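In the design runs reported in the main text, the only information available to the sequence generator was the tokenized backbone. The following block is the verbatim input for one such run; it is reproduced so that readers can re-run the procedure and compare outputs position by position.
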């Protein structure tokens, strides 16, 4: 049975800051961001937008009413949870009006969680071929004003509908995973922002990639020459490029081809920033919507990495007619976001919800987005659908 991605959608907040402006405000050469990180802009999420609203917005863009009657599992991969107990998938299930007899769960392992969700979705469809599974990768990467990681922040969500006989990509059964108990990036419950060992984390990203790819080759017999393109986890675009170069140095011909596709696959990532679990799938969407070199049956290689660390390499093949299920004007939509100066970015992105003695929020800002957090009442998050 062929199982894979039938639809894919994306949502970003309506605010953005130019990294050239941020560099000027921090007295840093803008080329450090533009060339050193290969990043240009950063999505900025207001306090009324979180992983629930962004995830619901990404999914609503691709789902029909019929889909909502057929989905029987909702999986959200995230490391930006809004509740230690209740899954974001439960909130999203309700906001979207998906039929009630569905399983809704949240998965966590840093930036890897949504990839695990994709594998679980495949297993579910293999058992129940008429089912549909909604997999959402939704995250907000936030490191603090003037922090080392500030230019690699971001916010957004990618939604994928997983089905039998998919119309975009068939996922192959060639997955290879690796786990290492390391502390390269982590987020204690008592900390507002993550703790990062930056140099160690980038080393582990690359080493996990090279060792897992070696094992993948031994298991499958595939080489880089078998792939038309590669999508990697993109904490910032330069990191993904370095990873590609690390596994491609022994095959210059394949590396040249894959590097061309890589630059098509980071068009959106460069304009959005890091969205943790969703970064690799945003790269896939960027590849599909910006490459003119791809064709049906082409095979795409994936490298998913979540600090801590778990990684996975797998592949998928494009389906005939996949272009018909994409959004060709997405770049124009991204250009319509409200551009913020640095002062407004600092105010909006780092605003915190104030609660009174009953655990209820002081009035939140107005938000005309399709989905928004309207208030917290007795410690309960209340969302609305426009």
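Verbatim output:
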């Amino acid at each position: 049975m062929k199982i894979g991605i039938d639809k894919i959608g994306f949502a970003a907040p309506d605010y953005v800051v130019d990294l050239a402006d941020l560099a000027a405000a921090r007295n840093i050469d803008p080329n450090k961001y533009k060339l050193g990180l290969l990043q240009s802009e950063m999505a900025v999420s207001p306090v009324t937008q979180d992983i629930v609203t962004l995830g619901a917005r990404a999914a609503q863009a691709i789902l029909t009413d019929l889909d909502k009657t057929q989905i029987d599992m909702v999986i959200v991969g995230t490391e930006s949870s809004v509740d230690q107990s209740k899954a974001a998938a439960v909130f999203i299930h309700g906001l979207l009006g998906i039929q009630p007899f569905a399983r809704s769960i949240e998965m966590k392992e840093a930036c890897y969680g949504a990839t695990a969700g994709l594998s679980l979705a495949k297993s579910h469809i293999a058992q129940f071929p008429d089912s549909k599974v909604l997999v959402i990768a939704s995250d907000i990467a936030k490191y603090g004003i003037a922090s080392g990681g500030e230019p690699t922040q971001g916010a957004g969500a990618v939604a994928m509908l997983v089905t039998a006989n998919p119309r975009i990509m068939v996922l192959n059964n060639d997955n290879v995973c690796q786990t290492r108990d390391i502390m390269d990036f982590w987020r204690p419950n008592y900390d507002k922002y993550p703790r990062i060992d930056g140099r160690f984390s980038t080393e582990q990203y690359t080493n996990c990639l090279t060792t897992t790819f070696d094992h993948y080759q031994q298991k499958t017999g595939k080489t880089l020459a078998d792939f038309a393109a590669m999508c990697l986890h993109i904490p910032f675009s330069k990191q993904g490029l370095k990873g590609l170069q690390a596994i491609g140095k022994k095959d210059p011909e394949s590396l040249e081809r894959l590097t061309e596709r890589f630059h098509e696959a980071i068009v959106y990532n460069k304009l959005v920033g890091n969205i943790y679990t969703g970064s690799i799938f945003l790269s896939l969407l960027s590849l599909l919507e910006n490459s003119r070199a791809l064709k049906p049956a082409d095979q795409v290689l994936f490298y998913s990495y979540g600090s801590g660390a778990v990684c996975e390499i797998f592949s998928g093949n494009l389906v005939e007619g996949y272009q018909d299920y994409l959004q060709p004007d997405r770049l124009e939509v991204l250009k319509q976001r409200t551009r913020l100066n640095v002062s407004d970015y600092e105010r909006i992105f780092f605003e915190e919800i104030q609660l009174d003695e009953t655990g209820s929020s002081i009035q939140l800002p107005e938000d005309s987005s399709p989905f928004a957090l309207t208030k917290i009442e007795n410690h309960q998050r209340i969302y609305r659908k426009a």
